[in-house]
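Subject: design request, 448 residues
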């Protein structure tokens, strides 16, 4: 019995010695498995860009932690003010893998894991970086839609442990601009796509590289597939060791590869709106002057109501765009040429519309003057495309607004031209001041 006990104890001690010897030669980074996880776009417009994060599996602690740089809180103090000022704060949060999978499964969004072929040194370096970043005093950052978001943070931390290999293969010019990528990802939400493009200036039309294009999580997922690295044995291997789907969403349609071109559709809408305002404006100014000192109530209301509604929207948008450009950190909204289309001057039209409803003489004069000014500025926005300083891609905006503003100005102009044509024949047939036409071709001498 004692011999059996001594034998078991000896085997146990030998096993412990072997484990200690093995651990003595093991690298601290061997315990980690590092993966890039990418989530598909969701249904709300602010989820249409997708998402990504870093997954760290720790075999020693038996944990699977998701490091997510896309965290913010609706309960944050002053959230609305910070959003309007372009000063939103995001932070790095850490969450177990299980709840993350459950969340994206509930939203019917796929989640793909790409296990990365990193050396133990690279794994340890990455874990130390993101754990330091996750500390309360370090985790927050100023969010930027394109230059500093959840995806660029993942991009940067991966590139830092890859000694710049990710950036090195991403130096080529990108196929699309920031605007092109934005339009592509929200292509099936047309009003959202239109308003996003309307609100953002020429900053998002500048040429970018594939590196800058990695603000889109899908692009990071695609780019890491192209990276090659050197493993612990000195062999050149693909960065992605294995790729697996953790959450399936078979009915989730991928976004198109290119942004849609719907300028003609917006032009049709603009022409219909322009024809409507032209007809209503002409009807307003062409009332019979001999019957009444002002247009009838029906004619005034027919123009004033739709004009007031339309210009309330355009005027509000124009004022918001001026605010974004002059008083906020919304860099993407600076130098917005759409101020010539959704013109802040149109904020005066609702007041003029009330005056038209009440039959005020000044309102009709103000309506004509402002219609001419707004139409002229809208036309300038189109003609200025020939100049090198006007590079914003805003064809959809011009296609919608220019016909509407021209239609609004066309009613009074057509009426004025028509009145001149009618008056011209009357002037030609009017009697001469000397008493009428005289025949000067033949003279008769008086009879004696």
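Subject: RE: design request

Done. Sequence follows.
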């Amino acid at each position: 019995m004692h011999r059996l006990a001594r034998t078991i104890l000896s085997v146990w001690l030998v096993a412990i010695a072997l484990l200690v010897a093995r651990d003595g030669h093991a690298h601290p980074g061997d315990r980690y498995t590092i993966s890039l996880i990418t989530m598909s776009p969701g249904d709300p417009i602010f989820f249409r860009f997708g998402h990504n994060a870093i997954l760290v599996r720790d075999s020693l602690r038996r944990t699977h932690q998701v490091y997510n740089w896309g965290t913010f809180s609706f309960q944050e103090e002053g959230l609305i003010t910070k959003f309007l000022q372009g000063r939103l704060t995001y932070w790095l949060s850490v969450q177990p893998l299980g709840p993350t999978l459950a969340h994206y499964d509930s939203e019917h969004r796929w989640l793909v894991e790409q296990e990365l072929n990193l050396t133990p040194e690279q794994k340890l370096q990455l874990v130390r970086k993101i754990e330091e970043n996750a500390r309360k005093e370090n985790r927050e950052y100023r969010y930027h839609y394109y230059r500093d978001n959840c995806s660029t943070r993942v991009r940067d931390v991966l590139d830092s442990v890859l000694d710049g290999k990710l950036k090195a293969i991403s130096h080529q010019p990108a196929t699309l601009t920031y605007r092109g990528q934005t339009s592509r990802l929200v292509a099936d939400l047309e009003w959202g796509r239109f308003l996003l493009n309307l609100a953002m200036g020429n900053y998002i039309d500048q040429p970018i590289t594939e590196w800058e294009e990695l603000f889109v999580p899908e692009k990071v997922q695609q780019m890491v597939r192209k990276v090659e690295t050197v493993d612990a044995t000195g062999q050149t291997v693909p960065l992605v060791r294995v790729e697996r789907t953790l959450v399936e969403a078979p009915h989730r349609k991928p976004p198109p590869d290119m942004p849609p071109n719907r300028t003609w559709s917006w032009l049709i809408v603009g022409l219909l709106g322009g024809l409507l305002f032209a007809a209503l404006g002409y009807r307003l100014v062409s009332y019979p002057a001999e019957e009444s000192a002002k247009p009838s109530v029906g004619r005034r209301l027919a123009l004033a109501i739709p004009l007031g509604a339309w210009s309330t929207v355009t005027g509000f948008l124009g004022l918001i765009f001026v605010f974004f450009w002059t008083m906020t950190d919304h860099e993407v909204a600076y130098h917005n040429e759409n101020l010539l289309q959704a013109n802040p001057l149109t904020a005066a039209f609702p007041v003029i519309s009330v005056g038209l409803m009440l039959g005020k003489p000044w309102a009709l004069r103000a309506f004509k003057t402002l219609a001419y000014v707004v139409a002229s500025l809208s036309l300038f926005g189109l003609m200025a495309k020939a100049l090198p300083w006007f590079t914003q891609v805003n064809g959809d905006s011009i296609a919608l607004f220019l016909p509407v503003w021209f239609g609004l100005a066309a009613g009074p102009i057509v009426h004025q031209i028509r009145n001149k044509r009618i008056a011209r024949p009357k002037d030609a047939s009017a009697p001469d001041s000397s008493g009428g036409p005289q025949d000067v071709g033949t003279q008769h001498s008086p009879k004696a």
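Residues 395-428 form the longest helix (34 residues).
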